[in-house]
Structures are given as C-alpha cells and as structure tokens.
Amino acid sequence: MPILKLQNVSKHFGGLKAVDDVSLTVEPGEMLGLVGPNGSGKTTLFNLISGMLTLTSGQIIFCDEDISKAKTYKRVQKGINRTFQVVKPFASLTVYDNIKVGCLVHMKKQENIHEKIMALAASVGLSDLIHDEARSLPIGNLKKLEIAKALATNPKLILLDEPFGGLSYGEGHEIIQLIKSINQQGLSIIIVEHVMSALVKLVDHVFVLNYGKEIAHGLLKEVMLDRKVVEAYLGEDYAEN
Ligand code: ADP
Ligand code: MG
C-alpha cells in the first residue's frame, strides 16, 4: 500500500493552473525527487499535500485515509511534515525551543522531551548551538534546524523544499548525509531540488512538472534525457529528436 497517493490533484489561482491534474504515489520508505523549472508548481504541490492550500479538485490519500479536507495540524499529527524553501524558524526562540515546538505535537507528557530535543539537535549537528537564537544562525544551520523542526513531529512522510538552496558545497554535503540517514530510518521523502549534483546522490526516481502538469516520471538518469524535460529546462533549441 502506498503511503501517499495523489489522484488528479489540481490547484488553480484564478485562470492559472499552478498544479494541473497530477497523480502520483509514494511507497513507504521511498525517496522521490520532484523537479521542474521555476514556477512549475512544485511548492504549490507541497502546500496541497501539507494542507496549507485547499485543492481545486482531486484527492489526497495518506496511509489509506482521504485527507483532502484535513487541516494542516491534523496532517502533521497523522505524520506529514515539510520544510520551507525560504526557511521559517521562530526567529526569537533558541534552537532548543524551535525543536521543542515540534515535539509538543505528539509528546503530551514532558518527561522525555529534553532527551528527544537533544537527540534531534545532535542528529542535525546543532548540539553546540542549542541555546543560540535562531535569528543568529547562518543559512546552513537554519537549513539543518528546518529539518530538525520537521523531524520533531515524528513524521512518516517528509517534504523537503530545496534543502540545498543557498548552501556551500561542504554544507550541502552534510545535508545529503543527513537526508540519507533520515531515509534509512524508514521515512518516506519527497524532495524538491534544483541542485542536480545533490539530487543524483539521493534519489533514483523523479517526477517532473512543467506548467503544473506531469511531463515525465521515472528513473532520474533516463528522465533527464527525455526530450520534453530537456525542452522544459533549456528550451527547444537544445532538444534533439
Ligand atoms: P515552483 O515551486 O515550482 O517554483 P510554485 O508552486 O511556487 O512553483 O508556483 C507555481 C505557479 O503558481 C507560479 O506561476 C506562481 O506564480 C503561482 N502561484 C504560487 N502561489 C500562488 C498564490 N498563492 N497565488 C497566486 N499564484 C500563485
Ligand atoms: Mg518552489
């Protein structure tokens, strides 16, 4: 049984079809790449899956349950969480308290919460900065905090929106290792990423959007040679027959 199933999902903003009749499935433990040119609907699709936008049409099934109309916090409780392309920490809270907010979604009693926060901070390499305010962190550490905040809610599926955006090569390498280890623990992941050198190290399969529509879906190394995909990224002059 797939963990996530999108059935003919669409989102229109007035006349603009930002997501247009998209169907896809994610299996438990799968890591799927979601790619496409700027403005092709990737973030909008994440907003639909996480419930931050309502569907124009279609259905979202998570763990065999129709969550199409569920509120965002309900979806978080059921096991979906995401990171943001433009990081969204609680700027005036410390690293510790940022992670704690996520933990409180599922931890009613506070007994083990300290251990959980410290373990999460360690897993993303932020132990030394645990008492620093989020606003003082450079972008590389904010990207790590973004992942720790999402993991804190105990997700089964995590949506990563451009986790490498703005990072140096070294910082990117650390995040690759982190994402791999999250996936090895059994979490399903959908990752939106423009940095192809990072994506090839993480995913086998990609789903390609252009103008809100699926144009290709399959093995990354095959899809990237697909005429429609080359055309979407580089223009038709570059696409050979
Ligand atoms: P991507 O993440 O692939 O770059 P987006 O999902 O952000 O693309 O955007 C897809 C399209 O939808 C773009 O044309 C964008 O301008 C438009 N769009 C996104 N969000 C909104 C919104 N809240 N209102 C109107 N148009 C939007
Ligand atoms: Mg985006």
Write structural notes for this entry:
The chain has 241 residues and is of the alpha/beta class. The chain has helices at residues 42-50, 72-78, 95-103, 113-123, 139-151, 169-184, 196-202, 220-223, 227-234, and strands at 4-13, 16-26, 31-35, 57-62, 65-66, 80-82, 157-161, 188-192, 205-210, 213-219. It has a 6-stranded mixed sheet with strand order 6-7-8-3-9-10, with helices on both faces. Strands 2-1-4-5 form a 4-stranded antiparallel sheet, covered by helices on one side. Helix 3 crosses helix 4 (113-123) and helix 3 (95-103) packs parallel to helix 5. The longest helix is centred in the C-terminal third of the chain and has 16 residues, at 169-184. The mean pLDDT is 93. The structure holds adenosine-5'-diphosphate (ADP) and magnesium ion (MG). Adenosine-5'-diphosphate is lined by residues 13, 16, 18, 36, 38-44.
SSE arrangement:
Elements: E1 4-13, E2 16-26, E3 31-35, H1 42-50, E4 57-62, E5 65-66, H2 72-78, E6 80-82, H3 95-103, H4 113-123, H5 139-151, E7 157-161, H6 169-184, E8 188-192, H7 196-202, E9 205-210, E10 213-219, H8 220-223, H9 227-234
Parallel strand pairs: 3-8, 3-9, 6-7, 7-8
Antiparallel strand pairs: 1-2, 1-4, 4-5, 9-10
Bound molecules: adenosine-5'-diphosphate and magnesium ion (MG).
Magnesium ion is lined by residues 42-43, 85.
Quick summary of this structure?
With 241 residues, the chain is an alpha/beta fold. 35% of the residues lie in helices and 25% in strands. It has helices at residues 42-50, 72-78, 95-103, 113-123, 139-151, 169-184, 196-202, 220-223, 227-234, and strands spanning 4-13, 16-26, 31-35, 57-62, 65-66, 80-82, 157-161, 188-192, 205-210, 213-219.
